[in-house]
Structures are given as C-alpha cells and as structure tokens.
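Supplementary Text 2. Reproducibility record for the structural model of the 407-residue chain.

All settings were left at their defaults, and a single model was retained for analysis rather than an ensemble. We include the record here because the model underlies the residue-level annotations in Supplementary Table 4.
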Amino acid sequence: MASAFYNKPIYWFASCYSFVYYAAGSLVFSFYAIWLSKEIGLTAKQTGIIYSFNYFISLIIMIVYGIYQDKLVLKKHLIWFQSIIITLAAPALIYVYEPLLKHSFYIGVIFGSFFLGFGWVAGMGLIDSYCEKISRAFDFEFGQCRTWGCIAYAVGTFIAGILISINPHFNFWAASFVGICFMILNVSFKPDLSKSSEEVFKKKDKLSFNEIMSVFTLKKFWIFVIYVLGTYSLYNIYDQQLFPVYFTLQFEDINDGYRIYGILNSFQVFLEAAVMFLVPFIVNRVGAKNALIFAAFISASRIFLTGHVNSITIISVIKLMHCLEISTILVSVFKYIDINFNSRLSATVFLIGYQVAGSVGVILFSTFVGDFYDTAGTAATFNNLGLIVFGFMIFAIFFLSGEKKNI
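Retained model, structure tokens:
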C-alpha cells in the first residue's frame, strides 16, 4: 500500500515551496492596487496601464519559464533565480519602483514590469507548475500541497492589512525576509527522480524543440486559450484591479477599509485552503471540463452581482466566493492539461496556455476597463464584465475537451 501523502518528506518540501512563495506574494500583492491608488495617488487608468505592462512583460517571461522548466524537470535553476528576486523585494520596490512611479511614471512602469514579472506575475505559474510536477512525480495531489500556499496567503494578507495602515514599506521588508527563507529551502531540497512513481520523470532524454512546438499545432490548445482569455483574464482585472479599491471606498475612513479588507481577505484565503484540499477529489469525480465550467460560472456570478448590491455584508460574501472559483480553476487546469496534453509539457502548457493567455487578456482589456470604470461607473463595469464571462462559460460547455487519455 502506498504511504499517505503526509508521511512523505517530499510532500512537505513541496508544501513549503508553496507556503514561502505565497507568503511573499501576499505581502507584496494583496494590497498592491490599493497601494498604487491611495499611497502613490494613481488613477484607475494609470493603474490599468501598470497592470497591462506587468502582464505584457510577464507573458514573455512565462514562455521562457514554461519551456525551460519542462527541460529542467525538477532542477532548481529558475527557482533559485526567483528566490533572489523575492529577497530583493524591499530595496527594489521602496527605493527604485516607488520613486520612479511618482516622478518618471513610464520608466517606473517598465522597471516594475520586469521585477514583478520575474518574481511574482510570471513566478506564480512557475512555482505552481514546479509543485505540480513534484506532486505527479511522487504520487500525491497537487491541491494537497497548494493548500499550504492558501494558508500562507491568508496569514500574509492579515499581516499586510495591519502593516499597510502603519507603513506600506513594512510589507516589502517582510517579503524580503520570506525570500531568505525561500533560499534556505532551496539548499535543503534534493529530489531523487529515480524514486518517482511515474516513468515520464525517469526519462533521461531531453525534450526536443519540435516536441515543445507541437503543442501550438493542436486545436484543443487554442480552444483552451480562448476559454482562459474570456474568463480568467477578465476575472483577474475584476479581482485585482477593481474590487479592492471599490470595497475600501465603501467606508468613510479609508484605514477602516484597509483593515476590514485585510481581515476579510485572510478569512477568504483560509476558506480557499479548505476548498483547495478537497477540490481534487471533486474534480476527479465530475471531470476537469465540468469543473472548469463551474469555475467560470462562479466568476461570472461574482462580477455581475457586485454591480447590483450596495450592502457591505453582501459585498463581503461575494468576496468570500473567491475561494470556490480560484481553487476549482487551478486544480482543474492541471487535471485538464494532464488529461489532454503530453505530461512532459505540463509547465509549457500551463504557463503559456493558462498564464500567458490570462496575461494577454489583461493587456488587451485592463486599460480599457480602467478607463470605462472611471467614466461609466462601477455598476455598468461589473454588469458588462459579468455578462462577457457568462458568454465564455457557454463557449466552454460546447468546445472544451472531455475526458481523454494522455497523448
């Protein structure tokens, strides 16, 4: 009988990778839009420009990350590079990025796009695909280790909510400290692929360029990309660019908004951790395609409902629904990729088909949505975004692939 996942040291290493990465991410990004808007004084349109540039540069980084990590398998070259970037968070964001945004906006935008892209915007896909490879290689569910990333994000967001009301720079110094922990983990982790439960990880031959490029000739790859463009990218604009500012503006004292948002975000991510642990079993039962459709339904519902309610309580409930959407889509995407594509190319398909496609959507729509939000208001913006995501959910019903054997 195979040993339980929690008895495997390799499981705890993967969990620690997820934990330290998402702890740093929460300290930098959980209040990122609020920091740009209220602390630096940028408009929604300027914030949209920043998000567009962040995702444009990151999509190039994601392509490199995906292809290179599939060649490396579980070697840590890119993971080491990412840990260095995270360790440099405080000096780079406080002494370079912030002054540039205030005094040389577009130079600051370009600098931030590369720095945040290597560390977080593209880095999130890298660390998730790395942990997913570990989970497949050593026979446990990705969601079981990713749960610790959710817990770390919840704890980090709670701390960030307190620190930002004192001094936003404290969040960046805390992220740098977590980066040092990341480096210590890299020194300790030494995977032995000869003990892998899957033969694909024991292969000595390297992936060829033609094997990698073959993904882009598949019709179902491009259908998957369209699904991501119409759902995940629009949801990111809503959840990261619009909702934090919208929520905090519901309070007379903006600092009360910061604190309540931090507490609410922490609670939501704790719920996300519980859902993340359970959702692999549900996705295995209902199938990856049906789970992706359900995730799109939750996304569309949250966005649309936000445009129709005024109660802080109901808006808070809508925020908490995030735990259902993000946990389901992340686990489902990896299951969908494993079923429909070559297992050796999981990082390439995930980072390009999911992360890059999501970034392209943000690039295409972020500035436009920010401008529309400034001129048309919240209700019209949320209504239209919600209806568009509903449309792509219907697209998924008809065109995403059902359960099939790996290629």
